Amino acid sequence: MAEPKQYADRFDGEVPAALPLSLLEAVRAHDRPDEVLEDENLTVSLPRRFGLTDVVDTQIRQFEAAQKAGRNVRLDDVVNLMRLVLRRPDAAPIMQDTGRRFADWHFQRKSAASRALYPRLPLRLSSAAAARAVAKELKILKAGNAVTVTRQPFHVRIDGSMFARIDADGAACPFITGMLQQTLRHYCDAEAAIVQTSCSASGNARCEWEGHRIS
Fold it and tell me: Does the predicted TM-score (pTM) go above 0.90?
């Protein structure tokens, strides 16, 4: 049987174990407790309990071990895991949460002194540091063929976006939205409204995001 067109791509290379770990932790956080309510419709609720299964718990432990050991994982395997999650009705918030968790992991790799310093810098310096961090995050994620990040105004452009290729509707792109929002929060100590203004999955030339500081 021929593979669906939107799943025909192959994703080469490796990415940090923090990516699938962030995804599964987000799934687990979004799933409900495992008790069965008296009036619960199991045909609706059971598919959302995936994050509470022993399978997910085992995978989380494996990815935690890989992360601690500094081992990468195959990108193609991570994409398959993402596609499983994208079948869920709550996929968009899960992907945004995954992006935030990945940004947390990347920020925690900085020294404690650096993490404390960035939010205290003048905005022109902290925003420049945030832009550099975003560029590094997108690079290690193999997010696209070409990436451009500007700080003022904050703007991200990805040509050949890997996340737009994961699903024909661009359903994985909220990952980037969440990652950008959390990165700006870490470096600039400010909340930002991140909006995706263009998506190649919709026929546009590239994927683009812009951010506006709101606090």
Answer: no
Over the stretch 91-150, which tens digit does the pLDDT of each residue have? 999 999 999 999 999 999 999 999 999 999 999 999 999 999 999 999 999 999 999 999
| pLDDT at residue 20 tops 50 | yes
CA dist list (Å): 83 to 79, 126, 191: 6, 35, 29
Among candidate residues 91, 67, 90, the one with its CA nearest the CA of residue 166? 91
Phi, psi of 190 (to 5 degrees): -150, 150
Q: What is the 3-state secondary structure (H, E, C) of the chain?
A: CCCCHHHCCCCCCEEECHHHHHHHHHHHHHCCCCCCCCCCCHHHHHHHHHHHCHHHHHHHHHHHHHHHHCCEEEHHHHHHHHHHHCCCCCHHHHHHHHHHHHHHHHHHCCCHHHHHHHHHCCHHHHHHHHHHHHHHHHHHCCCCCEEEEEECCEEEEEECCHHHHHCCCCCCCHHHHHHHHHHHHHHHCCCEEEEEEECHHHCCCCEEEEEEECC
